[in-house]
């Protein structure tokens, strides 16, 4: 089986780790600057009230929404022998658009820019599933 389809998954995992670190430093930084005791943000309600710098945490959570379907699509492509130029291109396109989305979300966070990256990534993912579905039904 062709393992090339697993590389976009590795790239998405790397993106998730990068955003996790960015979130960690953002939260710890705010807690130190504002002298927020860790126990003061023990629950999600407390954290939402005290931790106002949340764009990186929001992006981190977002990396566990659509990407779940992406990881499964890679698994389906790998196991069903549908690793080809189309599935690889769509997988890498999704990763590239998620990198753009995360970069926007974790920095200047302009909603419409972020939305367009998110939408384009979602369309790439649905196209990937369309290719996989066609291959499975045809096969």
From TrEMBL:
The keyword Cell membrane does not apply. InterPro entries: MAPEG-like_dom_sf, Membr-assoc_MAPEG. GO terms for cellular component: membrane. The keyword Zinc-finger does not apply. Keywords: Membrane, Transmembrane, Transmembrane helix. The chain crosses the membrane at residues 6-25, 68-95, 115-137. It is found in: Membrane. This is Membrane protein.
């Amino acid at each position: 089986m062709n393992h090339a389809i697993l590389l976009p998954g590795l790239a998405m995992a790397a993106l998730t780790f990068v955003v996790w670190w960015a979130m960690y430093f953002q939260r710890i930084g705010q807690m130190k600057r504002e002298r927020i005791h860790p126990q003061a943000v023990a629950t999600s309600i407390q954290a939402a009230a005290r931790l106002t710098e949340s764009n990186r945490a929001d992006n981190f959570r977002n990396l566990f929404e659509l990407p779940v379907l992406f990881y499964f699509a890679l698994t389906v492509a790998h196991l069903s022998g549908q690793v080809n130029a189309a599935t690889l291109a769509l997988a890498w396109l999704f990763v590239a658009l998620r990198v753009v989305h995360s970069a926007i979300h974790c920095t200047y966070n302009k909603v419409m820019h972020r939305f367009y990256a998110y939408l384009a990534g979602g369309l790439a993912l649905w196209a990937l599933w369309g290719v996989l579905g066609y291959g499975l039904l045809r096969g």
